[in-house]
From TrEMBL:
Location of the Thioredoxin domain: 315-496
GO cellular component: cell envelope
Protein name: Thiol-disulfide isomerase or thioredoxin
Organism per entry: Niabella drilacis (strain DSM 25811 / CCM 8410 / CCUG 62505 / LMG 26954 / E90)
UniProt cross-references to PANTHER family, sorted A to Z: THIOL:DISULFIDE INTERCHANGE PROTEIN DSBE (PTHR42852)
SUPFAM superfamilies: Thioredoxin-like
Amino acid sequence: MKEIKVLLLLLFVIPVQAQFRLSGRVEGLKDPVIKIQVPFVYNFFARELVVPVKEDGRFDIRFPLDKEKLIRVSYDQQAALFYARPGQSLQLSNNIAGGRVQPAGGSLFKENKVLFATDPMEYPGFLTTPPPRDSLTNKAPDEIYTTYIRPWMQHVGEKTAAIEKTPLSPRLKKLFIQEARSAAYCRASEFARDIMKMDQLRVFFRLLYQPVSPKSGIDHPGPFYYWFVNDYIGYLESEAMGHMKASGNKTTEPLRYYNISLDSGTVMIRKIGKSYINWLAVKNTNSADVAEAYLAQQVFTMATEKDLKYAGALLEVLKKNYPASVYYPSLKNSVKELELLLEQNQRNSAIRIVANYDTVSSIYAVIDSLKGKVVYLDVWGTWCTPCKHELKFTPQLKQQFKDKDVAFVYLDVDENERDAAWKTFIKVNALTGLHLRKTRQQMDALWKELLANAEDKSEYYPQYFIFDKTGKLAVTKAERPSKKEALYKQIESVLNQ
């Protein structure tokens, strides 16, 4: 409800021309809310507005909107894409209780009826019910492409052909068609990355991407186009590395598409992050506007994840290369907020780093110091996006067990050059608890301890473990913080032993 109150205050100072109204009636929801996700450039999941739905299914909300956007509306584990424009409105409804939400009225009804029929968010059958991995092991990439991808692309082609026959403006037709095609490429790439090895991917990416241009056919493209650009970088990287290998693995010569050597690129990744290298590929193969927007999204993402080091460094790259960027002022404010958080938590005694953590060779050396408490161990990394997503749910978790004998330990897996960034990150995020860091190599021994009695010995991130008050490992591969009640029950059961 806090988000709603803040939004209502904002609406008093934002003119109607800079707002969008979304209303309607959605009946039969299991969870009586809808979530409106407005992308900064192309990431729907960084910020969302949770809107309560009344008992009769009605809702009515106005929210700030400074330019046209494709927004994602989710409800009961379903979602749909809608077109929004400042000063306009859209009404939604489901024809039957629990049915799919669709356009029902408003000033943008006509446009959204076409977009809804196109459904860029449609998942192909090879993702909803994927074929067994074993059945694809011995198939060549071109056979997989012919069997699964080509029919999918033909299906999307039929949908885009239908858009051409509508009375929409030429620009909107191009926008919706490009979004549908871009999403189709993203689904194909998602499928391939999940089943193929690197040498197979290189061949598959050529089949998929070589015939197409990464450049947008319109100004101000939509979010799926930028996801396509992000996936296309994988193809460029594959081609660049293949070309370097064919040229004798000369790591000091500029890589194709990047105009930076592999050695220099490796240094820059350590300083600024992989996002910077990805932006170089976009900058050298796409328009200046697309490259600027892509870089701005990377700054926004890092700021949203409260990664001050990378957010600040990328913001400086944005300022240097696009001094008049429209994205810069708001991003500068976001980074400034992170700097203030760091300053506030510099002396926070509840954020404790294990003394001589670099010499710790057993996780029990840390757990034993907390005997008498149930310990929830979080194995994570500053480079791990799912790990950082889960951290958003830790305040609620800690509130649940406030004043109870529960301690929180965070085992970060990062290389030594990330030491300062790790310490900054936990302070910016006010991550109270006990912290230590290990390199991947050092982590081998700790994984063996943690997974000694586990049936699944996969070493993925993040992972969670619960120790009882005697220091014994009680739950291996415990629930994530985002699972809320399921995790709370696990911890409670160990507390009550």
